[in-house]
Design a protein that fits this description.
The chain contains eleven helices and 13 strands. The protein is of the alpha+beta class. The strands form five sheets. It has a three-stranded mixed β-sheet. Strand 5 and strand 6 form a beta hairpin. It is globular, with a radius of gyration of 22 Å.
Length: 287
């Protein structure tokens, strides 16, 4: 874990010195989880976004939309984010710092701590030190912390809203209009590139976990009866991807390397549509 952290820090140091990224509002004391893209970083970011569009917009023919980053509370109640979009947090009883409980446990050598219950995390934390003050966490309680940034829409506080935690909501709320745009025919897709926000408890690992970040998202709407027959599946049927199945993750084994056709036939990937976009996305990542 320490070796991985050293690598991240070295990469971020090079990025800062060469004008790719640096801490936001640095002259006023930067806040963790926010970064500015420098001249080279902004250009690289645009190139990556346009590469992504090359596949999803130009190759697949899906149209791009753009939605507000602020949404009314009703949207996020319906999506489950108000109730469920939370991480498990602990407050150090000595220095008062708020910390991601699963991160502390994982740093101690326990894998997949994010899947543990609050009770199991609390038990694991009992003998561990606070990473800030190094005092024992002891019986500090583990509790849920909602990651959405809350705001009010308009004067006063009559209408609550949130900064979107992902770009999907706008596509889903626009579904009726998108369906009409596509002449009431399935399948169709819509894509969006834009900012999302998550009030992370303890941002870390350079740019891996930020409080404001850009997402590129595609939502593909398919009739349930057609999900096993993608019209151009042949493009990626023989495309090979390393697949880390649940069993392999639990047993800490190496990924399974398989073609998309084999992965679908053997039930590793549920249907042709999912396999198609797994392969397409992998192709973008290695392009």
């Amino acid at each position: 874990m320490a070796e991985t952290s050293d690598i991240y820090e070295k990469v971020m140091d090079v990025a800062r010195r060469r004008g790719f990224v640096w801490p936001s509002s640095e002259i006023y004391g930067s806040v963790a989880g926010f970064i500015d893209y420098g001249p080279l970083g902004a250009m690289m970011k645009r190139n990556i976004e346009n590469l992504w569009r090359t596949f999803y917009v130009f190759q697949e023919g899906y149209y791009e939309i753009e939605c507000p980053t602020v949404g009314a509370e009703a949207i996020f109640i319906a999506s489950g984010h108000v109730k469920e979009f939370a991480d498990k947090m602990v407050q150090c009883p000595h220095c008062g710092e708020y910390l991601r409980a699963d991160h502390i446990v994982e740093d101690s050598g326990i894998t997949n701590a994010g899947a543990l219950s609050a009770e199991a995390l609390q038990e694991a934390l009992h003998e561990l030190p606070c990473p800030i003050c190094e005092e024992p966490l002891g019986d500090a309680g583990v509790f849920a912390f909602n990651l959405m940034f809350e705001t009010t829409i308009g004067p006063g506080s009559q209408r609550k809203g949130y900064l979107r935690p992902e770009t999907a909501q706008g596509i889903f709320t626009d579904f009726p209009r998108l369906l009409r745009f596509y002449r009431d025919k399935l399948p169709f897709g819509a894509v969006q590139i834009g900012k999302s926000y998550r009030n992370e408890i303890s941002p870390r690992q350079g740019m891996i976990r930020l409080r404001e970040f850009t997402q590129a998202e595609a939502e593909i709407f398919v009739h349930p009866e057609g999900k096993d027959n993608h019209p151009t599946f042949y493009r990626y049927a023989d495309y090979t991807v390393p697949l880390l199945t649940i069993d392999r993750q639990q047993d800490d084994r190496e990924p399974l390397t398989a073609t998309m056709r084999v992965a679908v036939d053997e039930g590793v990937i549920v249907n042709e549509y999912v396999a198609y976009y797994v392969a397409l996305t992998h192709q973008i990542l290695v392009a």
